[in-house]
């Protein structure tokens, strides 16, 4: 590139960056600070509305309408106290066992039944919802996207005139997520502050949010021993430090009138809530995946199982191949025809077959992807009033080696007949009322649980040597 063209590119890129910076400066409604904003409020709302159905399809809604209504009413009261009360605020309880809560741009807030089973008061719930509302009111998602857009633009301008930047542009793009991760962590602390602002405006005791952080810290310690780290901790500051910061903010503020905790009413709301994974939606045992609700089973053949609401994936140990089980529609032949009509998919000759008594149709296929050509075989099978799609695929080069195991998984689909499997039920919370003070050991002895004592202490936010006052406490029992 000539020096003149290089100079023109630099001036053009610099002018574009400068124009975007000035055009995108706006006042943050929650903090009052001026900051970069390249995403409008309308765009925020549109992004949330488009993503919401995908979240619901992937994770599922908790089916108890009274719990949905309870959480929604609290969330709407808190949102009305925020700096953006006119957003289309939406609050949903997801039927997911993980300890999690998150927000999408535009006012879409999600909380799992998993975190609800670990909370001990309405004030704690208000603190979690207030925190997520804070992410939305402070436009944290929009701010991060604006920074990323600006960085990408700067990178693109650099590629025009710098051979070095152009050569390593792909690597730099992949690093942008890590570059902006620290902003997310700062945002979490700010969301804690805003959560306190909103919950105390509704009269909730802000010290309860510190209790949530202590619970998350203990959950994290348990997960480090081999469990699953709470999703809320993935990019968040250490919850123990957050608990201290929250208590310091409470001490420094004037929250004398914010005293509502509402422990008893909250615990009665979550009584009998499923605890942990729901086996009726599928579970793996001794190398077999069982689905009691739909009454079928498949052999895993040593492949890993990722069971989601909308699909079950059997993944090869090296990650190079997968069998994906979903529910389709129409007859197997019609479903295969529809599959062959998808863009980028080329289907070979289909043949009718039978798999353990169920009529089916099987066909080889190839599909174009961003990573190259994929190859595999698809089976559409009619069983129990549904048409199931079992899609086995790998890279074109890897399918030959993966095909025998993938086919064995597909062909192992059969009716579930084991009464113990068909009648499986999830464990549930059981809220019990104690008539006097008990040691923790006495409580466990009098009210036994199906889970480890460490978990019982965790969900009640107790230490193992605690003495329980008279009142309501949680245990976990077999479902029915």
TrEMBL record:
Cofactor: Zn(2+)
Domain named Peptidase M48: residues: 67-247
Keyword Protease appears in the UniProt entry: yes
Enzyme Commission number(s): 3.4.24.-
Keywords carried by this UniProt record: Hydrolase, Metal-binding, Metalloprotease, Protease, Signal, Zinc
Record's keyword annotation contains Signal: yes
Signal peptide: 1-26
A GO term for molecular function: metallopeptidase activity
Family matches, as Gene3D superfamilies: Metalloproteases ('zincins'), catalytic domain
PROSITE patterns, A to Z: PROKAR_LIPOPROTEIN
Protein name from the UniProt record: M48 family metalloprotease
């Amino acid at each position: 590139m000539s020096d003149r063209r290089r100079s023109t590119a630099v001036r053009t890129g610099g002018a574009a960056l400068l124009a975007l910076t000035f055009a995108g400066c706006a006042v943050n409604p929650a903090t009052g600070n001026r900051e970069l904003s390249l995403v409008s409020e309308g765009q925020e709302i549109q992004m949330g509305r488009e993503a919401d159905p995908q979240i619901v399809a992937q994770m599922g809604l908790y089916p108890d309408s009274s719990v949905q209504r309870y959480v929604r009413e609290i969330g709407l009261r808190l949102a009305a106290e925020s700096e953006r009360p006119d957003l289309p605020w939406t609050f949903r309880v997801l039927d997911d066992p993980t300890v999690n809560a998150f927000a999408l741009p535009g006012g879409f807030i999600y909380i799992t039944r998993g975190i609800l089973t670990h909370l001990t008061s309405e004030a704690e719930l208000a603190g979690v919802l207030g925190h997520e509302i804070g992410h939305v009111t402070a436009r944290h998602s929009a701010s991060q996207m604006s920074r990323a857009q600006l960085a990408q633009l700067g990178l693109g301008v650099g590629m025009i005139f710098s051979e070095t930047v152009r050569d390593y542009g792909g690597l730099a793009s992949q690093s942008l997520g890590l570059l902006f991760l620290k902003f997310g962590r700062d945002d979490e602390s700010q969301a804690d502050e805003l959560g306190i602002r909103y919950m105390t405006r509704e009269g909730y005791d802000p010290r309860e949010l510190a209790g949530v952080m202590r619970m998350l810290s203990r959950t994290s310690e348990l997960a480090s021993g081999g469990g699953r780290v709470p999703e809320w901790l993935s990019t968040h500051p250490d919850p123990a430090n957050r608990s201290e910061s929250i208590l310091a903010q409470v001490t420094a503020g004037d929250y004398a009138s914010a005293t509502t905790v509402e422990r008893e009413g909250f615990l009665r709301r979550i009584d009998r809530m499923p605890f942990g994974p729901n086996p009726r939606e599928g579970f793996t045992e001794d190398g077999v995946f069982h689905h009691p609700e739909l009454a079928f089973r498949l052999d895993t053949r040593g492949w890993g199982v990722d069971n989601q609401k909308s699909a079950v994936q059997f993944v090869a140990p090296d990650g190079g191949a997968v069998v994906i089980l979903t529910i389709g529609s129409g007859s197997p032949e019609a479903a295969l025809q529809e599959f062959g009509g998808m863009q980028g998919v080329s289907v070979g000759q289909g043949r009718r077959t039978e798999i353990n008594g169920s009529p089916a149709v099987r066909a080889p296929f190839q599909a174009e992807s961003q990573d190259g050509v994929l190859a595999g075989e698809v089976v559409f099978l009619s069983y129990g009033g549904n048409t199931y799609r079992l899609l086995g695929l790998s890279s074109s080069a890897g399918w030959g080696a993966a095909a025998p195991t993938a086919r064995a998984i597909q062909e192992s689909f059969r009716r579930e007949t084991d009464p113990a499997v068909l009648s499986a039920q999830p464990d549930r919370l059981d809220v019990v009322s104690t008539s006097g003070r008990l040691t923790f050991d006495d409580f466990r002895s009098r009210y036994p649980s199906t889970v480890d004592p460490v978990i019982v202490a965790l969900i009640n936010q107790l230490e193992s040597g605690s003495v329980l006052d008279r009142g309501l406490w949680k245990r976990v029992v077999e479902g029915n």
